[in-house]
Design goal:
binds ligand NAX, isomerase, 23 helices, Rossmann fold, binds adenosine-5'-diphosphate, UDP-N-acetylmuramoyl-L-alanine:D-glutamate ligase, alpha/beta, NAD, single chain, 10-stranded mixed beta sheet, 2 domains, Ribokinase-like, ADP-dependent NAD(P)H-hydrate dehydratase activity, 7-stranded parallel beta sheet, binds potassium ion, YjeF_N_dom
Length: 488
Amino acid sequence: MEDVRAAERALMARVPDGALMQRAAAGLAAACGQVLGKVYGARVALLVGSGDNGGDALYAGARLARRGAGVTAVLLAPERAHAGGLAALRAAGGRAVDGSGPAEGVGGGAGADAALGVVARADLVVDGVVGIGGKGGLRPRAAELARAAEESRAVVVAVDLPSGVDADTGEVRGAAVRADVTVTFGACKPGLLVDPAREYAGALRFVDIGLGPELAAYDPVVEAFQYADVDRLLPVPGAESDKYRRGVVGVVAGSARYPGAAVLAVAGALRGGAGAVRYVGPAADAVLARFPETLVSAGPPARAGRVQAWAAGPGLGDDGDRLRDVVAADVPVLIDADGLRLADAAAVRKRVAPTLLTPHAGEAAALLGTSREEVESGRLEAVRELAGRYAATVLLKGSTTVVAGPDGTGAVRVNPTGTPWLATAGSGDVLSGLAGALLAAGLGARDAGATGAFLHGLAARLAADGAPVAAQDVADALPAAWRDVRRG
Ligand SMILES: NC(=O)C1=CN([C@@H]2O[C@H](COP(=O)(O)OP(=O)(O)OC[C@H]3O[C@@H](n4cnc5c(N)ncnc54)[C@H](O)[C@@H]3O)[C@@H](O)[C@H]2O)[C@@H](O)CC1
Ligand SMILES: Nc1ncnc2c1ncn2[C@@H]1O[C@H](COP(=O)(O)OP(=O)(O)O)[C@@H](O)[C@H]1O
Ligand SMILES: [K+]
């Protein structure tokens, strides 16, 4: 968050005192009004910590009180609550109670734990406990109030980010607020885009407080592709194209035991924009039965004929020889699944052409010598670490798919599409073929990974539409996803 803080400091030097907080509070109050529908007569509880995050909540509370809401601030640290915000709230007819804990008694005068009562009766709870100044999970008292908010029927709106989550990494190492909506200011914090924190944030609302020009001086730490970014990268054939110019992708997947992985990887590859798909391996019959347009070859990859990229690994079993050939090739290579286990790290590092590794959390954990849980709780760190170790681009799959470039610099791409229905056997094989075809069509490894993940996630959403899907359905929906992107 250093970049956001520095941009705020720079902007604050240019605008009147308190102007940024007023912009933030106005956006926050407007979002709360929309969530409530009717502000007049609504019961609003503000959870207010000791910093400016609490200040935002208090000023927004004042605006809601002026529109007729009954607003009560629960002050977690009454002596350190934002003085201006508290005065504004009181002037607007709101009130405040001491929320620091039942042992200290109350300022609101309504029994030993008035604060919990205020939260329990609220229609809307505004979480202003901590923002980007927070360290670690919620302290016990704040955690107790957050739990009460979760158990109440109130809608929970987090100010800037759900208190307790890490704004930089998306980690949630202790108790945290579970929000229905998060209203974030100036810049979308990286953590808000990445699980597990993303889960806690609910729906995201962005409020522009004018940081844009100041932030432009900093490179983003993470970025999320939008439709237009993907549209720009899709390899669309021109009038002069032929199948070779569009690119040939080689698929090295499947085994006698897992022929299906080959079929699914080819299914993805055929929808990836390359001109032809070459399959190399023992599942050629199964592949041809489903996709007669595939060029198959029985020998080793090195003798299969020219390709512009390889996608290798799904269902490969223990066939290290086929993988070695691919790693030694001088064209871009995607390595997935069994291939990740078989690949020699030193040989991967030595490659000159781009390499894209596509592990899920379990495979990433095995490569890093850590646990799956550790990878899932800190995806950004895990993907950067792997990319550094292998000097390769890494696409880490999962509930949030993230893509990091080989040199550790540049933003990590966070995929905004997808659905938990995608967690179905073989869907990763489809992604391998798809991203491999994008490499063959000429996209760089980071672009192929991010574009592939975007289309794959979008296809899954279109195919699932609220019901279970199989991996083949995802592959079948890729053309629809493609069209969706091209139409914007
Ligand atoms: N700086 C600016 O220009 C702007 C800042 N804004 C708001 O200000 C926030 C940042 O404010 P601050 O820097 O004052 O910091 P915060 O309000 O995020 O939190 C810092 C305070 O919380 C306490 N704290 C830290 N970790 C805690 C934990 N785990 N449990 C309980 N208390 C904890 C600290 O002791 C400190 O007093 C932003 O998130 C945003 O909401 C907005 O008003 C927009 C403008
Ligand atoms: N909870 C989830 N939410 C969204 N997508 C998920 C979730 N779990 C898995 N996925 C996606 O599903 C695919 C599964 O791939 P993978 O783990 O390689 O499975 P397989 O090896 O069976 O093909 C990946 O694209 C991954 O990002
Ligand atoms: K907050």
